[in-house]
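DM from R.C. (forwarded with permission)

"hey, sorry to bug you on a friday — could you get me a structure for this? deadline for the figure draft is monday and I only need the backbone to look sensible"
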Amino acid sequence: FLIMSYLYKRFQNNLLTKMRQWLRYNMLNILLKSNKENMDEINFPRISSPINRTASVCFMLINIIFSMILPDTSFVLIVAGFLLLTRLELGAIFLTGNLIITAIIALNWNTMYEKNKLAVETEYDNEASLLEIMHNFDKIIYRGQTEYESRIFENKSKEAFEKALDFQKTVENYGLSINLLVSIIVAVLLWS
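My reply, with the result:
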C-alpha cells in the first residue's frame, strides 16, 4: 500500500507541476500562430488573465480528480464490495445511499456550473477592467477621472464578490445536504 501510495502521489505531483506551465505555453503558442487577419482589433494584454485562469482551473480540476475523485471512488467500491460480501443488506444500503448522493450531484450540476460560469465571467470582466485602468493610469490621473474610475471598479468588484459568494453558498448548501446524507448512511450502517 505504501509503495503504491508513494508512486501514485509522485505521478500526481509530477503531472500537475508540469501541467500548468505546459497549458500556458500551448495557449500562448496557439494564440501566436493564429491568423493575424482576425486579430487586428484584439487587446492582447487582456488575454493574459483568461490564459492564466484556464491553466489554474485545469490544474485544480486534475488535482481534484487525482486527490479526491479517484481515491474516494476506490474507497466506495472497496467498502461496497466488502459490505456486499459480508452482509448483503448493509451493502445494499451503502450502494443506495451513494447512488442517491451521485444523483444529487448530477441533478444539481448544471445549476452549480451556471453559477460558477457567471462568477468566473464577472471576475474576468473585473480583471480586464483593472488591467485597462493600469494601462491608462497616467491618462486617468491627468484627466481627473480617478474618482469616476474608482467608483466603476468598486461596483465591478462588488458584483464579482456577490457572484462568487452566490456560487460558494450554492456549493455549501449542496455539500451540507450530501454530508447530512453521508452521516445518515454511516449511522444506519453502524446501527445495523
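R.C.: lifesaver. Helices lie at 2-33, 48-86, 88-135, 137-142, 146-191.
me: no worries. The chain has a mean pLDDT of 85.
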